Amino acid sequence: MxxxxxxxxxxxxxxxxxxxxxxxxxxFFQARKIxxxxxxxxxxxxxxxxxxxxxxxxATLLVWTRQYFDAQGWITxxxxxxxxxxxxxxxxxxxxxxxxxxxxxxxxxxxxxxxxWVHKVHHWSTSPNPLTTFSETPMEAIINxxxxxxxxxxxxxxxATMALIAPTAPLMGLYVHSGFEFLxxxxxxxxxxxxxxxxxxxxxxxxxFRYNFGGYTPIWDYLCGTNRxxxxxxxxxxxxxxxxxxxVQDAAGLAEG
Length: 257
Ligand SMILES: [Zn+2]
Hints:
This protein is mostly helical. The protein has a domain at 37-180. It is 66% helix and 0% strand. The chain is globular and about 70 Å long. Zinc ion (ZN) is lined by residues 106, 110, 119, 123, 205.
């Protein structure tokens, strides 16, 4: 049975370890914040309000629509196993078609008076945070959300593909609105990964408003000339900042050691 003093020492040592860990953790995030100091509590409170309303209303309407499609026999899934490349192709079809749907719907939402009624709420945050994902009007959530129902009605994909499709939109949304850039520097230089958007890419849509409309890829932005030309350079600057912060931390670590 350890003595009271030993337990106290363990607690103090634990508290110090947690504090040091949190400090490093905070530094890690701080160095990767896309817009330092961009968070506004007032905007965040308004976002909570709209997220709750929209999630309730749009989820209800989307579920009803889906049930209606099911009742009509318009949606069937292929059950059983399928080779991985079939699942991959089905998923890629969804991914690129949704990206197209989202890009053009999003461009349209930026035209007045549609912007004012449908999309303005989502643009309250010029420096997005994860909750911004769901802070939108029910109309916008339905326009984007109805795509999966229409897609599976037109293309009878496998169950396994649907299991991959279902979480994609919310996860991508949370990721691009995170407010932090975690991807490595080579991301925009590799011929493959550069065709998938980063958090910085979408963050710049919120900051500059007229560029970077793509939801999953920058393909349509490049084709239509709506990509922000300084995006790659800004991404590199963010990576420089993260690298500098790492060097400072390493130097501090060496000095302490
Ligand atoms: Zn927008």
